[in-house]
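Sorry to interrupt, but I need a hand with the structure work. Could you write out one complete protein record for me, on any chain you like? Could you add the entry underneath, on a fresh line?
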Amino acid sequence: RYGTEAAAIGEGKPSLIDKSLEGKEAEVDAVCDGEATLIPGVMEHIERAGVHSGDSMAVYPALGLTMDEVNTMVDYTERIGAALNVRGLMNVQYVIMREPDGGGSTVYVLEVNPRASRTIPFISKVTGVPMVRLAVLVMLGRTLRDLGYQPGLWPKRRLVAVKAPVFSMSKLVGVDTYLGPEMKSTGEVMGIDYDFEAALAKALHASDLALPARGAILLSLADRTKPEALPVVRNLAACGYRMYATEGTAAMLRAIGVAVEQVPKRLDEGHPNVVDVI
């Protein structure tokens, strides 16, 4: 029905159909001199694909990606930079779709921005590559090799860095806190350490996103995300949090032996409801 109406409105003009890819998102910042491309590092996003990159937590190096996936992104970035004759900074965002049975993966180019991105300061600091200085000199006519930099992927540093967004939701009334393609963060912080857990803890603490030592958790999960959420739910329960959940999620928690207080999702079904609990 929608296609028929679109065709009638468009009077024979083509309709664009987008497909939503619920894969793993990653991004690359690069410096191009029109021919060669230098990639300081590949960053992996923690959040699902579809969350604005400015609102995502980025991890360097990309610990959850295979070498084949990283090499594919490097290859695509170099080919795009050369084909577009980019001279300066470029940001490329990717989505990686993996086969459920472990039968390989496909790397999709999500978007290419021939400009600086908000992750330039982050990746410059953690890799030691002065991306802005290099980009300015390249735009003035120098090449990467003239500046003493070999094209391709820069060697990984012996550290892990996590970029975390900072939100101002609590200062604004009536703001929809659901993360999507519209950017809502107002800043960001960085955590660095020798392993992922410590770097993540530093970033969460600095961005005020860390969970309190005690309190309550409200869960309302879609059926398709319930299996994936089980380990997280078990960990939260083991930490001693009081658990609230809507009907379907409460049934799942009881089935795995987690004590839970069920609350109605609809506001006309009594109290306390989800809004009361929040």
